[in-house]
Design a protein that fits this description.
The protein is α/β, with parallel strands linked by helices. The chain is built from 9 helices and 14 strands. The chain has 2 domains: 237 residues, Type I PLP-dependent aspartate aminotransferase-like (Major domain) (Aspartate Aminotransferase, domain 2), CATH 3.40.640.10; 100 residues, Aspartate Aminotransferase, domain 1.
Length: 364
């Protein structure tokens, strides 16, 4: 049913970011470093204003629009600085110093975004799940109609929670989708601005995908450096200065791969199968504890613990000796964090859950 290719690998990469990409992408990217499109030049040595690179930029932008089914008014940008730069670039462009923006505080990344936004205006934190170490998504909060925008993180990479419903509000939506962009079908047109660091689901580190509705720009009256102004980037076709050409090329290869898999609806099915298998295994054996509320569980980053630190160490060592990378939990949560981004084959989850079952049975 799935045109999904199973990688025959001896290692399994559950890293949280930078993270696994399709094997074919690594192969094509390395070929392009040596000889791009038979030009006799490396992708690393062609000018960004050449026809060859312009074609890369055009196709990458077009594929983002196609895979996300974006309306024609949306602008697709590839910018520098990581998602962390968007934490302040967003309020710089959207928040008038006398106005306020609404933010949801659901994890370490969201709270960093809040901290940066406070530099540019008032921030109304509509709800937080800090009281239980960010192990759930708050619900039932209200967002003031006067807010300049509402910002939230769709998937909390560190804590393993994910928003499974869109907030009900009339104010412009802004989302940090760094760790779940292009993983599930969503009405992406509902957002006025989406940003995502590429290194989790779309490519190599060093570039951000930003999707913005130009309607919301230019309303703060704030002067800012050109490099911070989305309108300047739009005017210059995302080439206001030298863009991170190689990182964008890797995005293009990954976007092509995703299209070949059948796009977002097809990869969503694979992601759901992977998550189902892993969460069922966690729930089946008392030695493993799923940390977050079941209804808020992330399809991308699965967090669980083992009560006894010695047993935890033991299982970590078993994972390591079986070629599993990146399963150790974030220092703020402990335990295990298994990241299952788009490119992670179902087979890797089978191998991991088989180990978990064997281990749990031995522990009685
Ligand atoms: C990884 C991550 C970030 C930080 O990305 P950088 O590119 O390192 O700045 C921000 N938000 C979320 C949700 C992330 O997962």
């Amino acid at each position: 049913m799935q045109p999904y290719q199973i990688a025959k690998t001896l290692v399994h990469n559950f890293n949280a970011g930078p993270s696994i990409l399709p094997k074919t992408v690594f192969q094509q990217a390395s070929e392009a470093v040596l000889n791009y499109n038979n030009m006799g030049l490396s992708i690393l040595e062609i000018g960004h204003r050449t026809d060859a690179f312009q074609a890369v930029m055009d196709e990458a932008q077009m594929l983002v629009k196609e895979l996300m089914q974006l309306d024609s008014n949306k602008e697709v940008l590839f910018l520098h600085g990581g998602a962390s730069t968007q934490f302040f670039q967003v309020p710089m462009n959207l928040l008038h110093e006398n106005a306020s923006a609404a933010y949801l505080d659901c994890g370490v990344w969201g709270s960093k975004a809040i901290k940066e936004a406070k530099l540019y205006g008032k921030v109304d934190v509509v709800a937080t799940s800090k009281d239980r170490n960010y192990s759930y998504i708050p619900k039932g909060y209200t967002i003031s109609d006067n807010a300049s925008y509402f910002h939230y993180t769709t998937n909390n990479t560190v804590e393993g929670t994910q928003m499974h419903a869109m907030p009900q509000t009339s104010v412009p939506l802004v989302a940090d989708m760094s760790s779940d962009i292009l993983s599930t079908v969503m009405d992406f047109n509902r957002f006025s601005l989406i940003y995502a660091g590429a290194q989790k689901n779309i490519g190599a580190a060093g570039v951000n995908l930003v999707i913005v509705d130009p309607e919301i720009l230019g309303k703060t009256g704030r002067n800012m450096p050109s490099m911070m102004d989305y309108r300047e980037h739009i005017k210059n076709g995302s080439m206001l200065n030298t863009p991170p050409v190689f990182a964008i090329y890797v995005c293009l290869l990954t976007l092509r791969w995703l299209k070949e898999q059948g796009g977002v609806p097809a990869i969503q099915q694979v992601n759901e199968r992977k998550a189902k298998l892993l969460y069922e295994t966690i729930d089946q054996f008392p030695v493993f504890n799923g940390v977050v509320d079941k209804e808020d569980r992330s399809l991308m980053n699965v967090v669980f613990t083992i009560n006894d630190p010695e047993v935890e160490k033991e299982f970590l060592a078993i994972c390591k000796s079986n070629g599993m990378y990146g399963v150790k939990g974030h220092r703020s949560v402990g335990g295990f964090r298994v990241s299952m981004y788009n490119a992670l084959p179902y087979e890797s989850v089978v191998v991991l859950t088989d180990l978990m079952k064997e281990f749990a049975n031995k522990k009685g």
